[in-house]
Specification:
This protein is an alpha/beta fold. The chain has 2 domains: about 5-125 and about 305-335, Medium-chain alcohol dehydrogenases, catalytic domain (Quinone Oxidoreductase, Chain A, domain 1, Alpha-Beta Complex); about 130-280, Rossmann fold (3-Layer(aba) Sandwich). The chain has 10 helices and 15 strands. The strands form 3 sheets. Strands 3, 5, 6, 7, 8 and 15 form a 6-stranded antiparallel β-sheet that branches. It is globular. About 45% of the residues are buried. The model has no long low-confidence stretch (mean pLDDT about 95).
Amino acid sequence: MTTLPPHYQKLIIHELTGDFRTATRITSQPLELPGAGQVLVRNIYAGVNGIFDKQLCRQGIRYLTVVPPFDMGIESVGTVAAVGAGVHDFAPGDAVATSRLGSGYREYQLAEPARLTPIRAPTPEILTLLPSGVSAMVGLERIAEMRGGETVAVAAAAGGLGHMVVQLAKLAGCHVIGLTGSDSKLDLLQSLGVDRPINYRREDLHSVLEREYPRGLDIGYDSVGGEIFDVFLDHLAMRGRLIVSGHTSDFDQPVEAVAAPRIYRKLYWKSASVRAFQNQAFPEFQADCTRRILELYYAGRLRPVVDPTIFAGLSSVADAVEHLLAGRNAGKVVVRL
């Protein structure tokens, strides 16, 4: 067994202030050795989910009640530090990925073997695949019912989720429109195979779609909401599907009262639909998509993009969250623990 420290650090919500930086603090805890059927994992990298993290700090997740002290962080990659009695599938030194609320923003975690995904190496690129790439795959294949040769528009296409949606749609033979709010990200979108990159702050999205895509969108994959949702909705093709995978533009704003015709007037005559999607609501697809997304990556068919900004240590998590919420990231934001 590798020499283990007597204590480790983790990040918790200590007060529901609504602001990540003031709501969280780092605490030191005695390190527990794994019991029977348990694995101790040393986390090396953690993925950042800024909107979810901030919502936790303001009691904004409808299916969760946050009672401080509350453990934070979801996905991480690391190595097995020790195993308990009866564990035969993992050994110290094995590289693993994990995904569970409360297991990410910490130096060590105890886990059951069924919660661990074996990986070749604990690199930050894995955090773009698990769970973001899995979410993209489930969303496109199961919710959007993507077929080859379709026209797919992706909001926040250079983000941690969006750049995976782009690549999976291209692998399926689709024509991909990629949206970003920054000229600096247009080259990245083109390098990922986007057929029509659009900076929606510089080009009028409605006019572009009306002029260049008169048949409409087979799939609009939206995680931004607001005006982008409205434009995607107006430009759905016959039997088009609009996927709601978040609404980053107004998640922390008062609910907006929108004066508009009821949505069925825009959907019915096209036999179109709007479908909301959260990854955790579809556990039945996780194992298969995890296996397939890793196979695509190891075969060199996916290019995970990790944001180049370096965040090191638990003390940098608040900086990473604010970096993501400000929209400065390109790819997945990760913290080295």
